[in-house]
Amino acid sequence: MKKLAIVFVLSLISAVAAFAQVDRSQLPASGPAPEIQIKDAETFSLPNGLKVFVVNNNKLPRVSFTLVLERDPILEGDKAGLTGFVGDMMMGGTTNRTKDQLDEEIDFIGASIGASSTSMFASSLKKHQDKTLELMADILYNPVFPQEELDKLKKQTLTGLAQSKDNPNAISGRLSRAVLYGPNHPYGETESEATINNIEVADVKAYYQTYFKPNIAYLAIVGDMTKAEAEKVVNQYFGKWQKGEVPTFTYPMPERAAKQAVALVDRSSSVQSVINVTQPVEMKVGDEDYITSRLLNQILGGGSASRLFMNLREDKGYTYGAYSSIGADKLVATISASASVRTEVTDSAVYEFIYEIRNLVENGVTQEELDKAKAELSGSFGRSLEQPSTVANFALNIERFNLPKDYYATYLQKLNSYTVEDINATAKRLIEPDKFIITTVGNGSEIKEKLAQFGEVIEYDNMGQPAKKLEADASMTAEQVIDNYLNAIGGKEKVLAIQTAKISMDANVMGTALSIAFVYDSQGGRYGQKTSVAGNVMQKTALSDGSGSMEVQGQVIPMNEAQLAEAKLNSYLFPEAVYEKNGYTLTLDGLKDVDGTPAYKVIIAAPSGAKLTNYYAQDSGLKIKYENPASGDTFYSDYQEKEGVLLPMTWTIKSPMIPVPLEAKVTSMELNVPVSDEDIK
Q: Does the record's keyword annotation contain Plastid (predicted)?
């Protein structure tokens, strides 16, 4: 017993001594990365060239089929937007089923079937797989491409395109693609109203007949299906698919800018600037620098612990988030760093982007940063393996990119083998800090001069086209622009003679009818506005006796000082006639392109500091646009004479609060009529 006690005490002393020697301030060293045991997809091919990958997973009684066409990117030219219609047109009905019948049969079995210009997808319960494949094959072989479906798609696309012209992120995407690739590259061309309207059913049919061929296709099957069963059903439903010649294309590699430059879209209603610092890069999955570029990007801007995020958000507070990406593509990819920042810190944010990129290239990464990046990417890779579709994607990538068979099985080993020196060498090979294009969408009058420190500032329009060079009258002033407007609509005397107005307008937003009513009382300093849906007032604004309020769905909110100042600016039917009397200051900010019309931009500031921006057509002198960062932009058209004064009968409103542009037409207009307090309330 005594011997046992001595042994126990000695063991305890040894354990305490060993514990004391552990440095708890240091994380334990990572063990060697294992080779991942990824179940290989089973493969086979049909005589027509279709390559099939099967990933058996019987945990759930479901099965999915993903068909991918491996074609070269296409330059669509004067029919840009064509490929965006192909999938929906294929789903528009077949020679055996109308669109409604097709949708009904898909819904009845709870399946999901879709198509695009380069793929098809179908998924259902195992017991419905034959019906699902029957429907999928019918869509693949027998699409009818109905004209009415194309008409609907074109209308929807044109509506979305109109909306995107006022979406800063959409504008930024178009601008970046345009300056990186140019209009003669498939990644640089942009669809427009003209190219969308050029597309005909025959174009969609020609695309389908040219590219939907099994010899450029891969079919991935994931779910409750064995290889033997897959061979049977694939031969049954896809065996008769006829192969054919498919054209191939090559494009020159876009060159990086000779020197750093700034591409700017002036969107003066913006209160934020959308910044993208970008340059093209040759990078494919499996390239020498592919995995090291993932690690490099994770450190630069891959998450909330990255350098960009910690600098621009956590340290400077310029943005909610700043991120980067290093793409991979068979043709060409991009290196980009982006954020949306407050207007007043735009130049400071660009400086920090450039600093972090240059610092990364010149001074490299630290071991601590690399270890964290490896842990983050390893975790992401591991989580992806929980999805059976990941194995199918791996098999497709190995085939499409000619990767080693064990590429993904040894992925973590490769990932963890890279050193700080490897990452730093990749940064120097891939990134040229002096050859970035800095694209910016924001208030040009506030940021243009400040951005000039980073390179030549070249202006573009909201479609990514070089801004038109407009020639303004050198002697033109803001005051003269206003005088020209007043004369164009009938003269200041006739304008001032209109003291009150009641205007009603009707509009439609995505099938919902709206009515908007305005009441103006210039002499009494009163103003009212109501927006109603189906007769129910949803929102109204009232200004009277020097105070104002806003009411939204029954909740009344008194205006603060800034809101009241802005409401007073908007309370006149013809505010231009009283700018001087009310002490407003006018600033001419040049001649701008407003949807193809040269217009003088005039910034109007009240003594309180509240501002609004109007655009007046250079040729007619008429006001064609009003800008407001909060409520959006209003475009004026269809001027008609009322009591000797020209007034716009159509207002097109583009607001961040509505999903599509709202076109409101005047249904009634009463001038110089009595206005009561009830009209204002």
A: no
Residue located via tokens 């174009």: 203
Dist. CA 371–CA 366, nearest whole Å: 9
Q: Where are the beta strands (DSSP E) in 134-266?
A: 217-223, 261-266
CB neighbours of 528 closer than 8 A, spacing ≥ 6? 517, 518, 519, 540, 541, 542, 543, 679, 680, 681
Count the Cβ atoms, other than its own, within 10 Å of residue 251. 16
Residues 429, 335: Cα–Cα separation, whole Å = 12
Q: How far apart are CA 615 and CA 626, in angstroms?
A: 6
Phi (first) and psi of residue 275, to 5 degrees: -110, 135
| Two structure tokens written together for 160 | 């979305």
SS3 454: helix
Residue with tokens 């001594």: 17
Q: Please check whether residue 108 is in contact with residue 97, taking contact to mean a CB–CB distance below 8 angstroms.
A: no
- With left for phi above 0 and alpha for psi between -120 and 50, is residue 591 left, alpha or beta? beta
How many CB atoms neighbour CB 23 within 10 A? 7
The number of residues in the chain equals 681
For residues 419-444, one letter each, b for 16 or more C-beta atoms within 10 angstroms of the residue's C-beta and e for the rest, the string is: eeebbbebbeebbbbeebbbbbbbbb
Distance CA 443, CA 449 (A): 11
**Which positions of the chain have pLDDT values less than 70?**
1-39
Torsion of CA 186, 188, 190, 196, to 10 degrees: -10
**Alpha-carbon separation of residue 75 from 248, 249, 252, 388 (angstroms):** 11, 9, 13, 35
pLDDT for residue 36: 57
Distance of CA 603 to the CA centre of its chain: 29
Handedness of CA 84, 131, 228, 224 (dihedral sign): positive
What pLDDT shows up at residue 29? 52
pTM, to two decimals: 0.83
